Sequence to fold (318 residues):
Amino acid sequence: MNQPMNDTPTIALLSSVINMDYLLPALRAACPGATLRTQPELGPLQAIDAVVCWEPPHGLIAQMPNLQLVQSLGAGVDHILGDPTLPDVPVCRIVDPDMASGMQAYVVWAVTHQQRHMSAYLASATQRRWDAYPINPPRQHRVGIAGLGTLGLACAQALQAIGYAVRGWSRSAKAELPAGLQYFHGDAQRAEFLAGCDTLVCLLPLTPQTVGVLNAELFAQLPRGAQLINVGRGDHLVEADLLAALASGQLASATLDALSVEPLPPSHPFWDQPNILITPHIATRTQTSVIAQQTLANLAHVRAGRAAEVAIDRQRGY
Fold:
C-alpha cells in the first residue's frame, strides 16, 4: 500500500561504501511521484527533502539546507551520527518486523555451530575423517546476550527455547524480561555477567560508551576458552585484542558478522585465523519494500510535526 504524501518528495540515496541503486524499484513502487537521486548525480542539493543512507560521506548532508529527514538503511544510526557536520534534522532507523527472526536464526546457528564443534567436523570432512567430539547438552552451556533491545531479547528467547542457559546484560535496568533469563545491568553487575558466559553475543548499540568494548579487559573477565559472537557493530571490537585472546587460549573462537572495515580486505589477518569465522554482515537484512514504506511514513510524521514519534534520541545514540 503506497504511503500518501502531501507533495511528492525528492529523496537522495547516499553511501560511501555500497551501491544504493537496489532501493530504487521499491521507492518508485511506494511513491511513484517521488524524485529519486543517486550519487554522483544528486542535482541541486537544496531540492532534497530526505536522504536514505548507509555510511553517508561526511559533510554532504550538511549541504542540504531544506532537508527534513535522514533515514538509516538499518537499525543502527552510528554511521550517521559520526558525521560532525550533521545538521539538526530528525534521524530515523528502520524498525523491521522480520529483523528479529532473521537475527534469531543467525545467533542460534552461530552458538550451536561453535558449541557443537561444527567447524572441526567440516575440517574433518574435507580430509574424510570420522572424528567425534564431546556433546554437552545446551543447559550446560551458558550464553550471555550483551544488549537487550528488541533483537537481544528475541535471541535470548530463541536460545532458551532450545535449552540453553541464557543470561542478559543491559546498560540500564529493564522490566518485563523473559521468564528464566538471568539478568544483569549496569557497570556494577557487568563483571558478574561476563564471568558466566561460555558464549558472549554482542548486540549492543554503538555509542561513544561502547566503542572498543570488546577488548582485552573484557575478554579477561570471560571464562577461559569462551566463544565470542559479534552481531553488533564492527567498532565494538578491538581487533588486536581479539587476536591476542585467541592466541593465548583465553578465547576459543569468534564469529564476526560486523567488522570495522567492510568489505574486510583480503590482506586482513582475520582471514588467516582458523578459529575466526567471518560472515559478510548478513545476520539479518531488511526487505527493500520495508525500507521504502518506513522512509515515507517517517517523512510524513516529520512533515506533520510529529518527529518525536519516529526519530532516534541523539543523546542516547539509538
